[in-house]
Amino acid sequence: xxxxxxxxxxxxxxGNVTHNRTRLAYVTAAAVGAGTAVFFIWWWWWNHKKKYxxxxxxxxxxxxxxLVTYPVKxxxxxxxxxxxCTILGLKVGWLRDRTLxxxxxxxxxxxxxxxxKMVQVSPSVSGSVITLNAPGMMSVSIDLARICKKSFRTAVxxxxxxxxxxxxxxxxxxxxxxxxxxxxxxxxxxxxxxxVREIREKxxxxxLIENVDTGAFPDATSYNLINESSIMDLNSxxxxxxxTSNFRPNFVVKGANVYEEDTWDWIKIGDVVFRNVKPxxxxxxxTVDPETGVKNPKVEPLKTLKSYRQxxxxxxxxxxxxxxxxxxxxxxxxxxxxxxxxxPVYVDVPKEEETPxxxxx
Length: 361
What we know:
- The chain is globular.
- The chain has a seven-stranded mixed beta barrel with strand order 3-17-16-20-19-18-22. Strands 9-8-15-14-13 form a five-stranded antiparallel beta sheet. A four-stranded antiparallel beta sheet has the order 7-6-5-21, with no helix packed on it.
- The protein is built from five helices and 22 strands.
- The longest helix has 12 residues, at about 1-15.
- It is mostly beta strands.
- α3 links the parallel β16 and β17.
């Protein structure tokens, strides 16, 4: 199937690409107004199994305006001015991105898609201790250094991942806030320093993703980026504006052109290098108000996004469905490094002869 897709994609480019090209063009970006399908330009490099060839030329497209981590999947954010980028995601001391998760008594992961109030739980970290706060609740603290290292198997989207239980106090606290019961939910912690999941089946259509990019408990990859300008364009179409927090990114970039991020290939933030490995398809989670934990009754901004930001390419559509796109998934493609708020954001400058000219239909 993958080989057939690659052949089809190459055939579409034959008039524009030289004989020795290894790039593939895969979706074109052209937001042309509400109710109009969008096509994305994406460069598919089918050399992902080879040694990475880092770009030699870069151009600045903006700067980092927000740096966000979510230590517990679906709970509230923690913002820092400086963080380390690792293969598992952003890190500061014991704090790592999405390395804690809420599960039910059957071991299934729980998110704010089902329980919107989860976003009202605010974490904070001091040393190895993470503290959870929520409206109407006394805080609860968990010392990650004291968690029993005996792990068991839970699952994220049907894929087995190791986890360690965080104890009865945290379980009871979450159950009371989210279920109004004394039991039913538990908090678990990812005990490893590297990913173990394989790529989800629906994401295998995007050949730049590798197993090492899957992180601890995130849905797809360890990093997500949003462009401020793209959110501003979305807000111009909405009755009630949203913020970047509705999309739960790790990186927010200001200064870039609207939807320019769709076409980025290599990205460098400060001195840390990433690869744009897939567009970020969006779900009902975007309709949850990040402050109140209430879903938008008009299903916004998802409804409006679907009117102009869907992938319509017939080869990709079976994998993405009608989920609209906002933002991009990144993968770390260099050594660990430190990034800081305000860092310049660069993208690669491809060789002119390697850039095909593709006109939207």
